[in-house]
Design a protein that fits this description.
66% of the residues lie in helices and 0% in strands. The chain is mostly helical.
Amino acid sequence: MTHKHQQKPHDDMTALKKPDSDQLHSEIEQLAYKFYCECGYEHGHDLEHWAESERQVLERYRGMRKAPRP
C-alpha cells in the first residue's frame, strides 16, 4: 500500500500572511499618522484616521490570504 505525500503549507508564507498584533498595531499607527499629516495636522479626526487605517491594513492582509499560491 502506497501513501501519497501531502504537502503542508510553507511556514514562511503562513508567517507572512499572519502578522502579530504588534506588527498590525504599528502599521495601523503609521498609516493613521500619515492621514493626520495629509489633513494638515488638524486635530479632532484621530478616530476617523485610526478606523480607516485599521480597515485598510486588515483588508490588505485579508487580500493576501485569499491570493492564489503560485
